[in-house]
Design a protein that fits this description.
alpha+beta, Cysteine Rich Protein, SH3 type barrels, 3-stranded antiparallel β-sheet
């Protein structure tokens, strides 16, 4: 038997049947309730099991309720009812999964006992783990003295390494003497950059100043003096900017030496 149409109540045959909104419709009867515009399964909007177009679809609106004394009384009554229901549910659920524990002196004593047991177990585990990878060293006066002695030894070694490295890397380079070339025609004249000349180094008279070598220096020219750290230089006289003339007391060698490698004594 063919079902009736939702609008005209006439039988709907399978060739023209539309099943929507829990009803059967003729294709021509499936239209908007207001403007009667024909609708399809993709363009309709249902409201209370009736088809509408998007333009005439009923829009829900909120109703403003005045805050009158009667409404306030109803609101208060609703809150009281809600609290009564909550308390009733709470009483029913007692003992079914959780229970409220009163913080009585007996409960406090039990809690303190449990904390002590936990602390004892922790200390026992700590004692067992001693020596298995680390150990706690008590900061006693003896340990403090040993630590201070180790720091002093480390500081002394650091200064020794520092003094040794000064000779190898920290010593400032001497003045560049590669620009000074001896003239073959006059062995007493040296050429300087810029065309200026200076006389060759001549040994000054005895009675000069005394200097001590700060760094080691290897002679680069025949008229220079090699130095070792701590050598005593006698009869020192300045002969040019950055250079001096003197006698190495250790080797007896006389000649030129860089001024920034020695200090007066």
């Amino acid at each position: 038997m063919n079902p009736p149409c939702g609008r005209c109540n006439k039988p709907v045959y399978p060739t023209e049947k539309i099943n929507c909104l829990d009803k059967y419709w003729h294709k021509g009867c499936f239209s908007c309730e207001v403007c009667k515009m024909a609708l399809s399964m993709t363009t309709y909007k249902g409201f209370e099991k009736k088809p509408y177009c998007s333009m005439h679809y009923p829009k829900t609106s909120f109703t403003i309720v005045a805050d009158t004394p009667e409404n306030l009384r109803l609101k208060q009554q609703s809150l009281l009812n809600s609290q009564a229901l909550y308390k009733e549910d709470f009483e029913k659920n007692k003992g079914k999964g959780f229970s409220a524990v009163v913080d009585t002196p007996e409960m406090q004593r039990v809690k303190k006992t449990q904390d002590q047991i936990s602390h004892a177990l922790y200390k026992e585990d700590f004692e067992k783990s001693k020596g298995k990878g680390f150990s706690v060293v008590v900061d006693t006066p003896e340990m403090q003295r040993l630590k201070k002695t180790q720091d002093q030894i480390s500081n002394i070694k650091y200064h020794e390494d520092f003094e040794k490295s000064r000779v190898r890397s920290d010593a400032p380079p001497p003045e560049n003497r590669q620009d000074y070339e001896e003239q073959p025609s006059n062995p007493q004249i040296f050429r300087q950059p810029g065309g200026e000349t200076r006389p060759a180094a001549v040994a000054p008279p005895c009675g000069g100043k005394r200097y001590q070598a700060l760094y080691s220096y290897a002679a680069a020219e025949a008229d220079e003096v090699s130095l070792q750290e701590g050598d005593l230089i006698l009869d020192v006289e300045p002969i040019d900017e950055g250079w001096m003339f003197g006698c190495n007391q250790r080797t007896g060698q006389r000649g030129m030496l860089p001024a920034n490698y020695v200090r007066p004594v």
